[in-house]
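This is your field. Have a critical look at both lines of this record:
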Amino acid sequence: MSAIQSFVDRDYDLRLLLGWIMQGTLKAFDLRSNVVLADCVEREFSADEGVEMIPLGLYLIKGDNVALIGEVDTDKDATIDFGALKAEPLPQIHF
């Protein structure tokens, strides 16, 4: 468990089964993949408008809703103009 602890206080991008995209700073986790994100933002994509950033603050996400977790390169992320980025929203994931 101590090796996993090194992942705390880093920025992560989460893809949820409903197609939502969340980003924030990992503050806590458990063995069921439940995660707590600080400064959490939902990125809502649209084919007609730029990406809408919805601030959520401190957010608890149940592990059974998480499809994918990836670390964010904050330097590269800061260079992206999300207001001009247009893309279709991700569909829900079905098993």
Notes: The helical segments are 74-78. The chain has a mean pLDDT of 88. Strands lie at 11-16, 21-29, 35-44, 52-61, 66-71.
